[in-house]
Every structure is written in structure tokens, then in C-alpha cells.
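User: Some background: our group keeps a shared notebook of sequences we're curious about, and every so often someone picks one and asks for a predicted structure to add to the entry. Today it's my turn. The entry only has the sequence so far, pasted here. Could you supply the structure so I can complete it?
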Amino acid sequence: MATLQQIAFHAGCSLATVSRALKGEGPVSDEMVRRVRRAAAELGYRSRTSAGVAGTRNRPVVGVLVPSVTNPVFAASLAGIQHRMQAASHGVLIAQSNYDPALECRAVSALLEQRPTGLILTLCNAETSKALSASLPPTILLNNLPVARFPAAVTVDNYRAGYEITRHVLAHRHHRILFVSGHFSSSDRARLRYEGYRAAMGDAGYRPLQPMEIPFVDGYEHLELAPVMEDYAPTAIIASNDLLALGVIGALRRVGLSVPGDVSVAGFDGIPIGRLMNPSLTTVAMPDGDMGVAAAAMLLDIATNALQCRHLRLDHRLYAGGTVRSAV
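Assistant: Of course. Here's the predicted structure to add to the notebook entry:
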């Protein structure tokens, strides 16, 4: 088996630098980390600690953080991650933040205790990621735009998706369009979708309404829309995700309004249950499973082959559905 001395010679650095780079501890430049990991991969190096841990559980693992394991969006991404990691003989450890930024550090710390090969993280807001531990293994952001600390990411263009679904609703002669969302502090994806909505409204010459923000984790079956319907009298509602769109439809029916007869409704994600409805839900379909596969493949490339970090953006697709119709 290759030694640390051989890796140091191959990478052109000191033993101390090799140790820091492999452990993810101490001051080492990103370029040097890549050089050391590339040398270790080429020489077939495997640390004693990793070998011992892997021997205990029979195979290496990766850690994955998502806001919720029950949301079909993240469940699809997890399935994609597990499928790709299974092919690479890796296990998958899963943690959830419950859309709470304060819980993210604790969840990541729990994953790190298992010494994963790397991490795949869906954060409430990647801009606040400085609160995470300074010593992390190779890390991929999933659904968050890349930041200076985490340049590797797999995303869709949530801003553009928000713009396109709003243009679709506007094309059906709706001008009073309400955006209903979970708290933006819990999801930068929802915030970007709202910013796309605002831009589309402004470009069309209409004033965007103030968003209605509600908690993500309280469930949508008891969503109360009567006050906001009275205040804004919207003819259409765009929800920041499909589950919330279903909650909006239920809330409208409870106050005697039909969809799309009285109010049009649209969402984001393209979860299967939306297509089973009658009429089917108007939405922007996201490639959640493919994103999980892509994030897993990218992590393996960076962690084992020392490839450069990059930002991969997958395409979304507007699904017209039947819950949006022309305003009278």
C-alpha cells in the first residue's frame, strides 16, 4: 500500500501538508488539497482510519443533508444518490434539518462522526454556510447555488422557473397573482422563485403582491387563506412548491372557491401526485432524481479522482396542467 511519504513526493509537498489535506484539518489551499487527493487516488492510498471504519461497516459512506425526508422532492433526490452510490459500493447516511438553519450544523456534525468520503448538502441558505464546521470533506451543494466556500453544486435555475411560470399565468390574463411560500429564510430556492415572479410581474407592467410566507413544517392541511383572499382578491396563486399548491387548493375549497373556476393555482417541482389530480396541477417539473445522481457522481469524481469543482445546472420544464385557466 502507498505511504504518506510517497504521496508527498508525488504531490510535491511536505508530509505535514499531506496529513492536513487528507484529514481536512488545518491551513491547506484548495489546489494543494486537489493535488494531494489526486496523488493518493493514483497511488491507491487508503488511510488506516478509513480502512478500520470501512472494515467495521464493510464499505465507505457519504453523508447527505436534506430539509425533509418526507418531501417527495428530496425523496427523489435521495433515491438518485443511493442508486449512484450503490453502484460505487458506498453507503448513504441521511440527516434532515427540518428547514431550520439552526439544526444544520448539528446535523452535519452528526454525519461527520461517521467519517464520510464526502457530503451532499441541501442548505436553507448557502450564503449562511459559514456557520458550518471549517473542516469538511469534499462537499457538493444540491439545490443551492455555489458559494465561495462550496464551488461544487448541482442546481436548476429557480429564478428562471419562477419567471416562466408567472409568464404562463400572466398569459392567461391574470394580473392579481399572489405568491404563497414557506419562509424564505428556510429556503433560498423559494426566495429565488419569488424573485423570478417579481421580475415577470414587473416586466409585464404589473405590481407584484407581497408574498404570503408560512412555515414549511407545520403541514398544509389547515392552511387559512380567507384573510389574504379578502385583502388581495387574487385571481391566481403561485405556490413555492407542489405540496403547498395542493394545500392552497384545499384551502380555497374550504372557503367555497373552485380551482380553476374561481382561482387558478400553480406550483413547482412536478411531483407525481400533482398529475394524478383532476384537473392535473400546473407546475414546473424539476429533475430531482437526476440531480441526485449528478451530485453523487460529482462527489465521487472530486473525492476519489481529485477533479475540479464545478457548477452543473440541469433543465426544468413547464407542465401546463389544468389548474390554470384564462381569467374572465
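Suggested note for the entry: The two ends are 75 Å apart (CA to CA). The longest strand covers residues 61-66.
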